[in-house]
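no rush on this but wanted to send it before i forget. theres a chain ive been looking at and ive put its sequence and its fold in token form underneath. please have a look and point out which stretches look like helix strand or loop to you. thanks a lot i owe you, the record is right below:
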Amino acid sequence: MATRGSRSEKVKRIFYQFDVNHDGGLNREEMAALVVAVNPRVKFSDEQINAILDEVFRTYGDFIDGEKGLTYEGLLRTYDDGAGDVDRDFDALGLELSLDEVKGASMASEASSSSIVDERVGESQKKQRTAAAWAVSPNHGIVFDDTWKIVDDLEILVKRLKAKQAGSNGKVKGENLDSYSEAGWSRELGPSSEISEKRVYWEESGHDYALFVKELGVLRSRADGARSREQAFDGHMAIGRVLYEHQLFKEALVSFKRACELQPVDVRPHFRAGNCLYVLGRYKESKEEFLLALEAAEAGGNQWAYLLPQIYVNLGISLEGEGMVLSACEYYREAAILCPTHFRALKLLGSALFGVGEYRAAVKALEESIFMKPDYADAHCDLASALHALGEDERAIEVFQKAIDLKPGHVDALYNLGGLYMDLGRFQRASEMYTRVLAVWPNHWRAQLNRAVSLLGAKETEDAKKALKEALKMTNRVELHDAIAHLKQLQKKKVKANGGNNGETSFVTVEATKFKAVGEKTTLRQDLAIALEIRAFQRITRLSRCDVDLLKKEMSDGDVPVSYSGTGAPQRSIRKPNLEEILRRLLIFLKPETFQGAVKAINERILSVFDDTGAGRVDLGMFFAVLAPICSGSPEKRKRVAFDALLWRPVNEGGGAQIRKSDATKYIKLLRAIYVPSHGVSEMLELHGETDPSTMSYTEFLVMFDDPDWGFGIMSTLLKLETGDRNRHARERFLLPISRKNTDSESMELRVKP
């Protein structure tokens, strides 16, 4: 990434290239020429050009110099706000910096990032010394001279703390280059850094840190003692920014919170407090701060309009931290609509869509992001993953390789490419990818485990055993113990080939008496396969741990307005993000990452059937009725709640304790389309146009529900599987050795996902 100095020089060259009349401003005609020139592959219509220019001239009205147009400072601000990529535009125009410009830019960058010196210097020199990009920015920088003194003193304190905590190599613990995918979020009220952050971990329990906090308190008192509220605000914001730059997030949060108290309607302290809370893993509080920033920005009119895309992006990321990916998608879309060139918003949207199983939409968003920024390694990585999910494996391999070419130590790309090779049965190549992951991240136990599995697939059993043991050293998960025991068992009991030495495949002879004859105590193979699939869905979504009474509570407590569908029938429909909030309440016991997996499964299997038109709305009553049979509770209670959910729908209101027969028929067919897909398609085709006005009671509904051929009779088999699982888990918990850790109900897949 370009330094601040070279960045400003590049913007200056671009500005003078298009300031044809040399009046110090870019008028609409000159700006239009700039937009077209830096997007050579895009064919703009006159309407599109005018819309872009209207937005620029409105948003950056403070930088418009009469008829001259947008000033150089205004153009620099557009790039700072993420409206474009200065490096990409500079290259697209075929411009180059001269040697003198590069030298001058380097000196400017050095002046803006040099460390604190121990003696005082003149006021102008101090401003040069501490003038990071944020400090000299007209909207977000330091306003009062006294604040500069506080910043200088704080830099001295931080430098002293770093010197005391530095190890033998002169670095604070954890100060190493991160090679994972970028978080993608914006640290500043502008574009986030393209370089992965160096994460620093401060030792907060020692005497040195306690002394630092004490001296920091003195500086905060100086800020509070300022002559005006505005100056105190300026002081606390500057303290917070310096602390944030040095990754002292807890202390930075204190300063930003104080700034929020001083000016509650200012966007900046809420935004930065949200950033701190996110880094500290306090996602819910982070979301609340971003919402306050959003509220302030919307209330502030055009003053903060250009910040809205960044707020939307960070709000979406904080929601992802809570596992609320469908909700995050909405905010990423808003950011991309407000700023169509925001390649990071499009990348995050694509990644989030991939996370909920909407692969084609994910591919489209990620391709748009890459179109705007071809060297975006993270976007290539996620695009490849989405292509793999769609079965376009050869293209996925090419895109993964592109991500690795752009960023050779990209852990996610290497790991996921290894998984793709595993799926294709190319175990040797998979092993190589996992080895490269371990070279970057030596303690990546999942990579070590998958390396063992790939070596096993390549028939390198001894190396696989060694890799498994290495993985066991990294983590003590029970699955690794079981995997090693299984390998040992395979070696002890190698099955000999039956029938001679003709190279026949090994097999085991099973006596016919071992098989049970079909009867009342057996289940048809097809029914058992369907029941097992539903049971697997229950495990993924954890709905089998959700009490069915909670659905009833949501119906009684929820206030969902009645709306009208395209057919004119009244229904309580809600948007997917709102439905996700309800699911979060139902599955509140899940960790964010597990909840995200549950939502993905529900979206792919249930919501895709409900929202076949792509409107993004779901009939809530019918949704509750579909969930009820697979939640926990007695079978009678599940059926009763399903009936009550249908009764709760507006079309059945006023019918007493009866529902429409057509509604019940629609429900059963929907239920079978979702859970018994082999019959679902043909039956769903018959749904439209059924207007039977007759009603049915709960007793009649039970007869329809329990019908083994046309109802949901498979539920009886599902209940047997649930009972068997409960009994088996109870025995396993009783027999589990004390030295082993119970890992809840999660099961290790053959290929472990990151």
Summary: The longest helix spans residues 145-165. The chain has 35 helices and ten strands.
